[in-house]
Model the fold of this input.
Amino acid sequence: MLPDPPASRAKDNPWPQFPRVMKVDYGHAEVQVVHGKDPREYQILSKEFVSNGAGAVKGINTVKVEWTKDDKDRWQMKEIPGTERFFPADLVLLSMGFLGPENDVIKALNVKQDSRTNISTSPGRYCTNIPNVFAAGDCRRGQSLIVWGINEGRQAAREIDLYLMGNTRLPVTGGIERRPLEALEMNHELMQTVSA
Done:
């Protein structure tokens, strides 16, 4: 739905930000050689799937869109009349990204949500407003990188271990929590006793 990216960095995309520029993959280049144009479509909105009458899709109706700012400097999308187009298709794959956690489950449990419909927890914590219910990853912080999901899962496991056991030796962010020197000395003494 967005415009195609510029060929070089825009003024609002300075270094060291990741460059949001037009990139051509080998697959794009191959299609361009065969069909004479870049296969990607920009500023296009899917309107409806068209049935073949036998329960399968035969295509999709689309329309071009343009983006303008309103009087409060917010981006608004408008359809451009006369740009309707039909794309034939035997299969349509939906790639929508993360649209938020499963609302039915959250509502059924009465789990508190934030303004973006993610599960709400105290800052730096993974327990919810419901006892014994914990949240981590995209459902708690919103759409993010997989490494954040992994880290959140580990930290939630640590908090759950602490909740269930009263203490934990699971790793913390940035490394392994060091055990007190007394615990190491006790462990050494125990090993000496066992080996004797």
